[in-house]
Specification:
The protein has 69 residues and is an alpha+beta fold. It contains two helices and four strands; from the N terminus they run E-H-E-E-H-E. The chain has a single domain, classed as 2-Layer Sandwich (Alpha-Beta Plaits). The chain has a four-stranded antiparallel sheet. Bound molecules: copper (II) ion. The site of copper (II) ion has 4 residues, from helix 1.
Amino acid sequence: MEQTTLTVKGMSCGHCVKSVEDNVGKLAGVESVSVNLDAGTVQVSHDSTQADRSKIEETIEEQGYDVVQ
Ligand SMILES: [Cu+2]
C-alpha cells in the first residue's frame, strides 16, 4: 500500500468530506481515505497498480474540487 496526501481546494463542509471520501473510497485499490477539512488535505492509502495518483486526482476533480499540484 502506498500513502498519498493530496492538497485539495474547495472542500468546505461535511458534505464535501463525504462526497470525496465516498467516491475515492469506492475506487478499486483504495484501502482508506481520510479528509482533513481544516488542512484541506486528502490522505489516501492505496494500491497504485489499481488506483494510481492520477486516478484519485481525477475522481476528486469529478466531484468539483481542485487538486493543487
Ligand atoms: Cu461542502
